Amino acid sequence: MRTALVIGTGLIGTSAALALAGRGVQVHLMDHDPAQARTAAALGAGTDEAPEGAVDLVIVAVPPAYVANTLAEAIRGGLARGYLDVASVKGGPRRELEALGCDLTGYLGTHPMAGRERSGPLAATADLFEGRPWVLTPTRDTDTEVLNLALELVALCRAVPVVMDADAHDRAVALVSHTPQLLSSMVAARLRDADETAVRLCGQGIRDVTRIAASDPRMWIDILSANPGPVADVLAAVAGDLDETVRALRALQSAEEDKRDEGAAGIEDVLRRGNAGRSRVPGKHGAAPAAYETVTVLIGDQPGELARIFADAGREGVNIEDVRIEHATGQQAGLIQLMVEPTMAPGLTAALRERGWSIRQ
């Protein structure tokens, strides 16, 4: 791949353009808002000047509702050897293209499983896709050259290709992406009118659950409008669990021991099913999640403190497998949780103590 045209210079389009430009591809940028394309170009993502002839690959990175028409216009204009989109739904756009009578041999639907709470070109990074799954949905009609271009794009962005059926993809993202967004927003919505005293008690649990609730509502309306059925199916199943859980909690209030036992069993059931489901979420490098030991350290909110604790761990030859930070309310300090291999935890704990760190059990 020597040349590419990215249509849509938001977070995903600009990030892909940055990755390609950084690896020597001549990238042209186009957006319905020329100022946004100029911003992406100023960031080093390519040029906002139109290509003089056909490019190797057109990457359509516009909201799902506009994908089919944008692709159809590009295909009819002969803008490239191959065409793909990066929308978060796949079945709908392909059916729309078929209805528009487009030749789909040169088209491949894709979806990089990466994103941020922020949107727009200023939120883009060249490493956004690194190590992340990038779904490809070829059909029997997909031209081999287009598939190879898509695989080259994924490799240049340092992502991991995953081949799926388009409709299976839409059901999958309804479960692992779209429904979590709505559930996160629903929990966060409870905080809007909550008493200030309650809000001040927020800890890492509520921060974890509500992190993605900071996402742009307009973007998510576009996404959910393109995949409403599968999302509604998952939410209906969640609603069934909620109903059962509410009944179990009410039973725990009963004066009758049998009902309390029944309620406890209901709560235990949903918690254990949650344990089982969580254990299936891939861990580091896509492998099954490992059982790490957590070393919790009090850390001050001063420049260089994170670098210092990581350096101290490195001096002991300890690899930090994962890390979390819980900020202390109203204090210039917080707790950093260092996840390490269980065999490394005792040595790390002792070494950090020797270097003056305050270890919390």
UniProtKB/TrEMBL annotation:
Family, per entry: Belongs to the prephenate/arogenate dehydrogenase family.
Record's protein name: Prephenate dehydrogenase
Domain ACT: 294-361
Lineage of origin: Bacteria, Bacillati, Actinomycetota, Actinomycetes, Kitasatosporales
The enzyme's E.C. designation: 1.3.1.12
Taxonomic superkingdom: Bacteria
Reaction(s) this enzyme catalyzes, per UniProt: prephenate + NAD(+) = 3-(4-hydroxyphenyl)pyruvate + CO2 + NADH
Keywords: Amino-acid biosynthesis, Aromatic amino acid biosynthesis, NAD, Oxidoreductase, Tyrosine biosynthesis
Entry keyword Translocase: no
UniProt key word RNA-binding: no
GO biological process: tyrosine biosynthetic process
A GO molecular function held by the record: NAD+ binding
Domain Prephenate/arogenate dehydrogenase: 2-289
InterPro entries registered for this protein in UniProt: 6-PGluconate_DH-like_C_sf, ACT-like_dom_sf, ACT_dom, NAD(P)-bd_dom_sf, PDH_C, PDH_N, Preph/Arog_dehydrog, Prephen_DH
Biochemical pathway: Amino-acid biosynthesis; L-tyrosine biosynthesis; (4-hydroxyphenyl)pyruvate from prephenate (NAD(+) route): step 1/1
SUPFAM superfamilies (UniProt xref): 6-phosphogluconate dehydrogenase C-terminal domain-like (SSF48179), ACT-like (SSF55021), NAD(P)-binding Rossmann-fold domains (SSF51735)
